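Exercise: predict the fold of this chain.
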Amino acid sequence: MKIPVFEPEITAEDRAAVQHALERGEISGSGGKSLEDFEQKFAEYCGCAYGVATTSGTTALHLASHAAGFGPGDEVLVSTCTNIGTILGAHHLGATTVAVDSEAKTWNLDLDHLESLITPQTKGVIPVHFLGHPVDMDRLMKIADRHGLIVIEDAAEAHGAKIRGRVVGSHGHMACFSFYANKIITTGEGGMVVTNDKNLVEKLRLLRNLGFTQPRFSHEVAAYNFRMTAYQAALGGSQLSRIEEILKSKRRMAACYREHLKGIDSIELPFEESWAEHVYWMFGIRVLPKGRINRNELAKALRENGIDTRTFFRPMNEQPCFQKAKNFRPTSCPIGGDLWETGILLPSSHTLTTEQVAQITTVIRKTLVG
């Protein structure tokens, strides 16, 4: 039986929540109890006052980048090791994006390197909590405050991750989450921006909803339609109600992987800082060059045994579309490049059983060690 890299869990309670929303006529993204409840409860979960639900994590980042005022003449520093959606909003708004290399332990953006890339044109930073391990936002915010920078957390992969006991999302000026089908909680497609800033939330809500004000069809702002539907929000609210159970399952999965993979010196397991609580959106490993086979060969062996995998993300400084763009400042990101060449994401559904982990790791050990 094939083991997918990720499989969402939709329960009877989830289906009932969507059905009840539909029965109440909550179809569009123009309001309704389900949408308002989900925005409020998720924001509160993140330690924020306000939530603005969107069509995706990518549009959440676009919305936040617009609300932050990113545009031509501005530079925005972004983690190099990330899904391309992190960078697209700032890019399409005309800001110059600057990739920041990863650091070796957590694979997050390198805060030691970050400050050296700041120029008088730098307006913001978008750090990514990569694979569910949080960036040290306490340290990052000190750097940002020193230089007057706007910080948008990309927490698409990190729902519930903690920094010194505090959930990610309320450290930056805004934070963006994804509820895509493979995320820790899902609405199928969908995202959210959370913030504690009343002025920012008013901008976010205006920009999300086509810039509607009064009179209704007179628009002062050329905005977007980035509205989440109310019945999607009903699914999100139902999933949110069991997020702690999901996170416990994620950490159990990671512990099981660690136990079965220990002692294999040709791989590197994910690192967890003492101040962090990793949520293991995906359990990623690196296949080190000193081994007898490389990452692609391991992926092939797993695939031949019915086990699905993914590579890490291609670093932003190597993306062909940005290398050709005028609003992209080239940087060197050797660690990000190495992660792209050696990183592999193993099946990481929170429903993964111990027997499945044993099956996956048996193939890994046999392939790498013999």
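Check your answer against the key: The mean pLDDT is 96.
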